[in-house]
Amino acid sequence: MTRIWILPILLVLCGSLVATGLILSGSPGEAAALLMMFSLLAAVNSPLVFPRSIDALEARRRSATDGRPVVYWRPGCTYCLRLRVRLGRSARRLYWVNIWRDPAGAAAVREANGGDETVPTVVVAGRPHTNPDPEWVRGQLPPSA
């Protein structure tokens, strides 16, 4: 659990150190802007933005049971972030697999994309779709009970 917070914490700490240096050199405006940028990067890479990831095998098993799509993603990917943000609350109804934490997930993405780790790769009913439109993904969700 704590490993997923390492990058966001490091980003905030680095931003704080650089901002402190800028404040001491007499540039408080630049320091505030830089600290805000580092904080935004930390938030985007935090587990608060993306739903909790599960491993690829569990995601496939659950998807086969209830028909929900599986999204293969990685931290720092702007297209993954775009998909997550545009899906809004619907994103929690998908199964998210972080390919940097799950070798089986990374292998599934390479298999679907001719050897490339192109994300987001969304698997719906066993068929992969690379970087699909978020509205299309929302339309693939089974009706909520």
Automatic annotation (TrEMBL):
Region Disordered, annotated ranges: 126-145
Domain Glutaredoxin: 70-127
InterPro entries linked: Glutaredoxin, Thioredoxin-like_sf
Keyword Membrane in annotation: yes
SUPFAM superfamilies the record matches: Thioredoxin-like
Annotated keywords: Membrane, Transmembrane, Transmembrane helix
Entry's transmembrane regions: 31-50
Domain of life: Bacteria
A Pfam match: Glutaredoxin
Identification of the protein by name: Glutaredoxin domain-containing protein
Species annotation: Streptomyces populi
Species lineage: Bacteria, Bacillati, Actinomycetota, Actinomycetes, Kitasatosporales
